[in-house]
Amino acid sequence: MNIGGIFFLLLLCIIAQTYTQTTVNYYEQTRLTHLTLIQFYRWFQVYERPYTVERINNSLDILEDNVTIESSNGVMNGKDNYPNRLLTYRGWHNAHHIEILKDIEILPNSKIKLEADVLYQNILPTGIGNSYVNHYIMTLDLRPNDLPLLSYVKITPIREVEPIIFKNAYPTNRVKSFMHNWLYNIERARDPNDFLELLANNFELHLTSNQSVVDTWIKFEEWIQSIPVRIKLSSHHYKDFTVKEYDNGTLFNVTVKFDWQGVTTDTEQTMIAETSHQWILENNLDERFARLKYMKVEEIRPFQLLTNDASINLRLWSIILLNLLLTQFL
Question: Do residues 275 and 257 lie in contact, with contact meaning Cβ atoms separated by under 8 Å?
């Protein structure tokens, strides 16, 4: 093989390695986004329902010991001071509606940065209501095999909003924290016990893969353990999300669609699908998360290999180019 052939083979190896790393980074970014949004949506929940000891403890659960919180109410250092800060809002009705959510930014030292614009509404004990948009900057510290913790929160009012009808945001924030937790654990699918906090006692899951019904813990374990046998990497992106609240917030009816993409374990081929989900969640307001009682999944676009011309991946092109180079230079 001449020098030119060696150069092209080296270039091909670099391209293939870059493709592999880019693919892994895409799925890793998705998982980190889920982890971040679990805690992001949990942040608002303590403000949106009357305080109890359990709910305040759950809000402390998302904070680093030395967390710093900056807002129009001043600067707070250390989570031990957080319960006193919450007293400011006792008796208020609060709602937080996410308007703009930027992509997460992965920082050095296992940190993640998130920015968002949030429409904040309140009704004071006097009956006076206010609405304005806050800009949030949050920094979270990643932890091995656990949820990240907030180490820095900055809340800046950026504009006032004309008075609008107060709209309850708790069901959305409560369910989305559950949803991202569920998706995070489905996408890594390592240990069925990771779902213990997310399942109701008597659950019934209707899966689309083989039309089976998962309604016992043994069946659930078998399903979760079968995922990595078939799927090496996967991601979910949601759309058309709706939630309705029943029985004083102890029950949620959820509909949501997911654009799914994955990589097969055996052949490392890309697959896609689109599914529609109906969930019924039981909600004990004093627990960290709502729990899944019922799930029904329907295929909108069946699970299939991504094989059209526009989506031939770099791995396939690498094989083609390698064959050409070997023919040319060997």
Answer: yes
CATH code for residues 21-326: 3.10.450.50
Q: What is the 3-state secondary structure (H, E, C) of the chain?
A: CCHHHHHHHHHHHHHHHHHHHHHHHHHHHHHHHHHHHHHHHHHHHCCCCCCCHHHHHHHHCCEEEEEEEEECCEEEECHHHHHHHHHHHCCCEEEEEEEEECCCEEECCCEEEEEEEEEEEEECCCCCEEEEEEEEEEEEEEECCEEEEEEEEEEEEEEECCCCCCCCCHHHHHHHHHHHHHHHHHHHCCCHHHHCCCEEEEEEEECCCCCCEECCHHHHHHHHHHHHHHEEEEEEEEEEEEEEEECCCCEEEEEEEEEEEEEECCCCCEEEEEEEEEEEEECCCCCCCCEEEEEEEEEEEEEEECCCHHHCCHHHHHHHHHHHHHHHHC
pLDDT in tens, 102-149: 989 999 999 999 999 999 999 999 999 999 999 999 999 999 989 999
Ramachandran angles phi, psi of 267, nearest 5°: -105, -5
d(CA 289, CA 62): 12
- Residue 222: what residue type? E
* pLDDT, tens digit, 9 for 90 and up, residues 259-315: 999 999 999 999 999 999 999 999 999 999 999 999 999 999 999 998 753 444 445
Q: How far apart are CA 281 and CA 268, in angstroms?
A: 34
What is the spatial distance between Cα 153 and Cα 162, in angstroms, rounded to a whole number?
26
What global pTM score does this model have? 0.86
Structure tokens at 279: 């969930």
Give the type of residue at 76: M
Measured distance CA(204)–CA(282) in Å, rounded: 13
Q: Which amino acid belongs to residue 227? A: I
User: Whole-angstrom Cα distance, residue 257 to residue 54?
Assistant: 32
